[in-house]
Amino acid sequence: MKELNQHEEQIMSIFWSQGELLIRDVLDLLPEPKPPYTTLASTIRNIESKGYLTHRMYGTVNIYKPAIDQEDYSRKSFQRLVGNFFEGSVGNFLSFMVKEKNISQKEVKELKKMIDQMEDNK
User: Fold this and answer.
1) Which of 16, 29, 22 is nearest to 72 (CA)?
2) In tens digits, what is the pLDDT along the chain, a chain of 122 residues?
3) 55 - beta bridge partners?
4) How far apart are CA 39 and CA 22, in angstroms?
């Protein structure tokens, strides 16, 4: 699957939170400044061509819905991030987060707990 750009991810987040939508529904849910209807329709068709949306016809209009759930997308995006920027190592990623102070003490404790549980299950 091709990657989504930031604008496409914003649109997908609307679908993930709402489910099936018409283009005009998505337009109503987007923040200002709203794109023209035709621009949004083109973007939605592009997202569908990348495999993230499917549609069905209802009369003469298309109703779109996610073809991939948000959890799967998040997992693949994270794996791509770790692969591209951290040599495929989650440890390198976590080390970076700790060094940059982008991870709280509470989160560190939760991670330690999860690691301990994982070790206990082996």
Assistant:
1) 16
2) 789 999 999 999 999 999 999 999 999 999 999 999 999 999 999 999 999 999 999 999 999 999 999 999 999 999 988 999 999 988 888 888 888 878 888 988 898 898 888 888 87
3) 64
4) 14
Residue where the block lists tokens 């330690």 = 112
Distances 28 to 31, 32, 55 between C-alpha atoms, Å: 8, 10, 19
Q: What is the DSSP string of 76-113?
A: HHHHHHHHHHSTT-HHHHHHHHHHTT-S-HHHHHHHHH
Strand partners, 94: none
> Alpha helices, DSSP H only, in 19-69?
23-29, 37-49
Angle at 5 between CA 76 and CA 29, to 5 degrees: 105
Q: How far apart are CA 14 and CA 20, in angstroms?
A: 10
- Enter the pTM of the model: 0.80
What's the burial of 56, exposed, middle or buried (CB within 10 Å: 0-12/13-18/19+)? exposed
